[in-house]
Write the C-alpha cells for this entry.
Amino acid sequence: MSSSSKRPRDYDEEREDEEYDDEEELSSDEEPQHLPRKDLEKPVPPSISEAGHESTGDPGRQQSLTTGSNCKLRYSLVCSSNMNRSMEAHAAFLNAGFTKVASLGTGRMVRLPAATIEGQISFDFGTPYTDILKELESQSETDVRLQDFYRRTKLLDILRRNARIKTAPERLQEIQELAYDVILCFDLRVYDAVQEDLQVRFP
C-alpha cells in the first residue's frame, strides 16, 4: 500500500463525533460477506472486507467457510465497540465449528446506546462484559424507563451472550500482533479504521 493513501493518525478522533451509533448497531441485520485476499508484498497483512460487498462466488473460498473446524484460516470480526455485530458473528462462527475466530472493536471507547442523550455511557476496552452488565443492572433497578429501554434493545441479553463467548471487548489497535488471515468489518467507518491501522503496521 502506498504511503500517499495513509490517513493521519488522529483520523479516529476526527470521526469521533459522527462515530458509531451503537443503538443502530444493536438493531443491525447486516451479515458479513467474504472478499478474496489480495496479493500483497511481504509482510502480508490480513485481507479485510466490508460487510455488504458481494461475495466472490469462488467455490473454493465458499467451501472453506463451510468446513468449520477443518478451516485453517484465522478470522477476526470487527465492529465499533466489540459489543453486538462482531459478537453475533463470533457466536455464529463458533456455532458453525470454527475455532480460529476472534472479535474486536475499533472505537476509542465501548459506547452503549442510552434512553437519553444525557444517559449515554462508555466503558474502556478491556472492561469485562459482566462488569458492564452489573453497572447497567444497577442503574436500572429504580428507573422504569431504563428497564423498558434495556428490554426493548435486549442490551442486557447481549451482554450475557458476550460474557459466554469471551471475557471483555478488545480494541484492534491495541492488539500487538494481528495474527489473522481474514478480517471482516461490519461498517464502512470500521473498515476505514482497520485499513488505517494495517497501513501503519504494514507500510
